[in-house]
Each structure stands twice: as structure tokens, then as C-alpha cells.
Amino acid sequence: MRVLFLCHNHPSLQAGGTEVFARNLFRELRDRHGVEGLFLAAVTSTHREWLPGTMVQSIGEATDELLLWLDHFDRFFLSQPDTYGLASLVPLIEQLAPDIVHVHHTLQLGVETLDLLRRLLPRAQFIFTAHDFFPLCAQEGQLLTTDGRLCTGPSLDGCLRCFPGRPAGDLVMRDLQMRDVLADFARILVPSDFARGRYLAAGWSPDRFSVMPNGVPDLPAAPHRRVADGRRDRFGFFGHINRFKGSLMLLRASRLLTGTGVAHGVALHGGAAYQSEAFMAEFDADLAAAPDASFRGAYAPEDLAGLMEQVDWVVIPSIWWENAPLVVQEAFRHRRPVICSGVGGTAEMVRDGIDGLHAPIKDPAGLAAVMRRAIETPGLWDSLVAGIVPPTTVGAAARDHLMLYQAALAEAAV
């Protein structure tokens, strides 16, 4: 079996959950199951300089992982008009001749790339994993209104409020285009029941949707921190530093805990690339006002176990509907209870009072109260640790994906 993976970036350049899982899955299929193929990641001038003569670039020493340099992407229509860049794909794809094309995102690649591949590979089976809500929501796939409220799903009137300068026809055409480009995909995968529900609520057909959890490497758990008095008061944040992931909520909660005399520590781990000056100024101000919090910067995957060893709890205070953040699985792999906003896919993954705690969304005082409860309730941390179920591994995810690929090919052969 030959498989082409398409992703909107490479984890060596942007270590987001989608990029990390997609590359791990590709390598697992290759190394454990003998699947041949190519991991093709789109990049722009933000990540890599354009090199004359080709839009395809290497990265690292892997010969089956390549970058496709594309610019001029239209984030509203998810459109890639760079026909010169796309043309450079043709000989590469024709030589690979994949049986399966697995698309992990349409960002940077655009719907034109998918149309091109459909024409080049009429016999291949196409799989799409909706790692987020970009096909539904033109507001950066956040299902979050411009004034910061959760959105239950797209509607013409609601979307016009977020895009008052857009004609209604643009919003209608975007929706029709996404439904059309994915209409003949064999499967649409989502990593959570919550995500599936959002797509179905938006009127997408349930027939081709399958819930397929992501997975993390099956590695030893980091030892728990030694505490003489049983006090579990060290909190860790792992993820991109941006407004949507809730780092500001955590800093403000930490400031409130300090103000009430609750001893604790908060460590924020993650990169802050590509953020606006306004957000970073707000982040720096909140960090300066939270003396018991520290910002440790970006980290490599191999550093995660050592960083987890220093914390008792993982906090995910996102202010939007998370789909199925990989950090939950990472926390559970290292047997750390999770404190999360009690909405969306995160709340589905973290069972309140069993393996973690839910906190009110976008509410620093509410988050601080939950963190205080986590510190001061005797036996709570031990009880939650005991309730943690080992997460899906990349190995298990690879086996499930391989079975799905085989089923799609068998159905097409009938």
C-alpha cells in the first residue's frame, strides 16, 4: 500500500498537535506496517525561504518527508491560487501513485490542491481528518465570535455578524465549496464525538463520518514529583502561547491565588511565534503581575517527560471549543490529572472528578477556585491519578487507520 499524507506544516517547523500526530502516524505506518509513501507538508515564507527552481524542499534527512512551498493562500476561502507551485507536484505525485491520500488539513494547501490530486489520482481513495473546524468556520476555524463568545455552529446571519464587510454570497460559496471538495472523500475522520456533533449540527451527512482518536507514543511515564507533605501545587501549561489556548486565563488565575495567599507554582511551556504585538504585550503584562508563574518558552518533544516530572497538574484553560487536544493524551500518558475548561472536546476527554477537573470557561476567578480545590482537597490528586485510563497510542491509532484504509480500498474495488 502506498499512502500520501498532506499536512499544513511540518512539526520540525511548527509543533502543533495536528502536525505532530500526523507525522507520528505516518512514521508508525511506515516502520511497523511497511506502508510506503510520502509526508508532504505545506509551508510559506513565514517558515521557509523560497528556493529558485522548485517549490519542493527537503527537511532533515528523511527522504519521504518533503516541504511544499506555497504562498498567496486565501484563509477565508481556503484557496491556494499558486498554480505554479501546484504544478510542481504533478511529477512527484505521478511517480508515487498512492492508493490512499490522507489529508490532515487544507490550510496553505487549499481546495485547488485537492482538486488537482483528484484529477491526477482517479483510482485513489481520499481520507480527510477534520482536526478542527476550518471547513465550518471562516473565523479561523474557532467557532468563536469576534467578540469572544462560543458559537454553536455556522449560520448565515451569525457569520455575517463576524464578517460584516463580506457579501452573503461569499459565505454561502465558502460553505458550498467545502462540502463539494469533500463530497467524494471515502471517509471524514474526527478525533472526538463532540467534533462529529458540530459537523452534523451544521448539516453535514453522518454517513461518512467516523470518530478516530489521535494517539501518542507509547513511552514510559515521567515519575511523579516527590512531596513530603502530600501537597500537589505545581501546575503546567503545555501548548502554543496564544489567546485561544487560554494562557492569559491561567496567568490571571495564578495572580488571584497569590493574592489570597495560596502557595503554588505555574510553568507555561510553549512557543509564542506569529502572535500579534497586542497579544504579546497583554501576555507580558499578565506574566509580570503573576509572581508565582513563569514562562519557559518552546520545548522539543523529547523534553516533555522531564518537564512533566516537575508538575502535578496539567491545565488547559482554552477559551474556545477544543476538538481533541493532544496535550490531554500527553498528560494522561504521564499520569497527570488535567484541569480544563468544561466545554467541547476537552471536556469529553477529561472526566470531571474521575481523571481531572472542569473549570468555568474564560473565568480566571473560577479557574483559580478549581486550582485551589485541587491543592487543598486531601486525597483528590491521588484519586484522580487512579482514575486515569492510558490514552490511545500511536501504534493503536496506526492499526485502526490501516484497517480503515484497507476497508476503503475494498469498498472501491466492489
UniProtKB/TrEMBL annotation:
- Quote the InterPro entries the UniProt record gives: Glyco_trans_4-like_N
Please tell me whether the keyword Glycosyltransferase is annotated for this protein.
yes
Transmembrane segments annotated in the record for this chain? none
- What are the alphabetically sorted keywords of the record? Glycosyltransferase, Transferase
Question: Which ranges carry the Glycosyltransferase subfamily 4-like N-terminal domain?
Answer: 16-216
Q: One Pfam family of this protein, by short name?
A: Glyco_transf_4
Protein name as it appears in the record? Glycosyltransferase family 4 protein
Species whose genome carries this gene: Paeniroseomonas aquatica
